[in-house]
Amino acid sequence: MSRLFRKLFLSNRPAGSKVANLETSLDPSVTLRKLRNYHVSKTDICHYGFLGSVLLFVFVVNPAVWIAKISVYSLFAVLFLVPATSQFFFNALPIFTWLALYFTSSTFSAEHRPPITVQVLPAIETILYGDDLSDILAASLNKPLDFFAWIPYGLFHFGAPFVVAIILFLCGPPTILRGYAFAFGYMNLLGVISQNLFPAAPPWYKLIYGLSPANYSMKGSPGGLGRIDKYLGLNLYTDGFSNSAVIFGAFPSLHSGCATMEALFFSYVFPKLTPLFVFYVCWLWWSTMYLTHHYFVDLMAGSVLSYAFFQYTKYFHLPLTEPSVYSRWSYAEIKKFSVWFTDPLTSNDNDIENIIVPTGDHEIELNSLENSVTPSIFDHDRSVSRSSATSNVSLEVQDELMSSSRPNKQRID
């Protein structure tokens, strides 16, 4: 197995390259030394300040016993200090922050929550697309379609983030996994915050309760996944969705956001397979509506949110890929996209306007032409144009030729 790994991933490793090396030290003093020498930027203050405030909020609001909360936070502090584990866990801080807020959302008091909207999403759906697309797709049900919809929504959605992370780590450029954790975590974190600030009922609520008002004491529903439980003789999805931490979290769709983020990162590393990743996103879109878990407007919002975070991460955090390289250990250096260098309004020494033209002995002095008089086409005495001179010469030559070619006629009286 190790021989196959070396052949696939280490055979083209540049000599002396260390950009893909992993930290193996277990000494926390190494991390503390790096921390003392680290210069904090304004972006870091905003980044860690925001995540820290969310984690502090979760620490205070979560109803777990204080000893349990302190133990969990202390465990993560140790993982952050050990260099071998810090390179993975610390960079995944946005993901852990999202998970902490998500599972704490079920404990929020209904008195401090905004009212649940039931009619807004179907109304927007009808205004934008002319009808409720989820109702149309869920009108024709059969067993093969149930399983076809279950694959991306009930299986791939939960395992795909880990598979994508492993493949990006092995086949992508170094530090790309750090960018993936940043974009994926922030997209889900902002999505959960939006779902708590704007709670909306999914399509399954309309099928069960109509457009009657909803409240936070209601249980969730597995929607079309309940049929999968019946087929398999399980209560997996029924129990999971009935006790979901965010029951009325239809908008935005984080299922769509996760699938879009995974497709964007895979397309970034494997651009030739982009049609396959687009098909996966469309497949998941169809399954969410067929299983009555989301409206189409939810899917669009989730994909737009994912695309926005990916674009920011791409231009400010992601390393550039090389088409001929398929392993992280084959990269000799890490190159990143420069937004300021590609800005057309930014001055650049390589611009043609900024190139210094060397002076020589044959330099033309414009001042020497100030006293010169420009000839006029009407001034026959000063100059004759080249075209007119040429035409005059050509006429004289033609007259000579014509005269020489004429035969000498004799007059006969």
From TrEMBL:
It is found in: Membrane. Residues 177-314 form the Phosphatidic acid phosphatase type 2/haloperoxidase domain. Keywords: Membrane, Transmembrane, Transmembrane helix. GO terms for cellular component: inositol phosphoceramide synthase complex; membrane. Its main location: membrane. It comes from the Eukaryota. One of its GO terms (biological process) is sphingolipid biosynthetic process. The chain crosses the membrane at residues 45-67, 73-103, 147-170, 176-198, 263-286. It is a multi-pass membrane protein. InterPro entries: Aur1/Ipt1 (IPR026841), IPC_Synthase-Related (IPR052185), PAP2/HPO (IPR000326), PAP2/HPO_sf (IPR036938). This is LAME_0G15918g1_1. It comes from Lachancea meyersii CBS 8951. The lineage of its organism: Eukaryota, Fungi, Dikarya, Ascomycota, Saccharomycotina.
